[in-house]
Write the structure tokens for this entry.
Amino acid sequence: MVKENPPSPSYVLDDTGVDFDILPQLVGHHIGRAYRALFDHFCKTTAEYDITPRQFVALVLIDANPGSSQTIIARAAGIERSTMVSLVDILEERKFVVRTRSTKDRRSYALTITKQGKELVTKLKPLVTAHDAHVIQHLTDNEKDSMVKSLDKVMMGER
Amino acid sequence: MVKENPPSPSYVLDDTGVDFDILPQLVGHHIGRAYRALFDHFCKTTAEYDITPRQFVALVLIDANPGSSQTIIARAAGIERSTMVSLVDILEERKFVVRTRSTKDRRSYALTITKQGKELVTKLKPLVTAHDAHVIQHLTDNEKDSMVKSLDKVMMGER
């Protein structure tokens, strides 16, 4: 099952003798693997609060931009509008967020964080910051900076 | 809502006047945003086949490593065991994969791709390759290579 002639460029994924076929050449696969690993670690780190990375991002943005529209928060978070609706449903059900008709545009919703939501964000921030440091502990500052710059060029102009 | 003193390091996420608070400093957030953008584009590109990136990865690995155990495929794909079970359930229901008791270890499952599964993978590969090229079109080869190397260091040794 081991390829004798690895494809070029041959990004090594591991040494278990598994044939990865075209996967190592797909940059999206490396992003996906990194994301899944950090997603699992994020959920483990914040387990007692039962929160996902996306919910955390939405909460931080709603907290920092009180009264902003759901559309603006979704765009800033990089979350599709339809996904955002169900995400805010959950946050509202758990009493972390309040959704009100916008005074400027009656068709859109303005989001505000509740006292409980604010308390949750305050508790989560140090946990998530520590999680983030853990996730990238094997990267130098230079590697981290250039990875972030490159990640921000992924799907540039389309998100 | 615009911060007068941006946090350092201040990775710029956009210029909409949204206050991103601590998010720009969290590397995981940049990975998450990139992943969500490419996830949406992947699903759009492969819409007629109704497949997720994770299902694609699993199919490619099962195709390239016939008879491998579910555990080995999950590990190679970077998918948690419990998630892998429901993922293979779906692939089996759709007749892309067959799950049989391993002859070596009766407690574990061996996975084999079906004729339909093979046909699907053959159709998907060029689509996903084109999708991947689109996603990283704004990156130079050097940026791409070093981003991949850094991504592979995320959660290194723990996945």
